[in-house]
Amino acid sequence: MPATLFVVIIATCSVVALSIHAARQRYGPNPLPEGGIPAAEIIYRVEREPWTCHHAPARPYTVEQASRVMQERINCSADDCDAKAAAFRVLVDARRIKPATWSR
Length: 104
Prior knowledge:
By secondary structure, the chain is mainly α. Helix content is 56%, strand content 0%.
């Protein structure tokens, strides 16, 4: 039994190694297309871009839309979420909510 298991393991490793070798022969050591960008480079670029939670709409929200957005984005901060900030401004302008004031 152990000899059969050994043969199966060796055969499996051989098939995997041959598959990898064939892929490298066909695509080269780095399978990126001409002018392609490696995933690590894409991740590096994305991590350094300005980040926003949800984008603001192209046109201002209606009061009803702003109310719904505020409910849907309850866990978002208006500082990080452009959609929530835009909704907040609409509701303040419509006098539906009053921003907090700080007294020092």
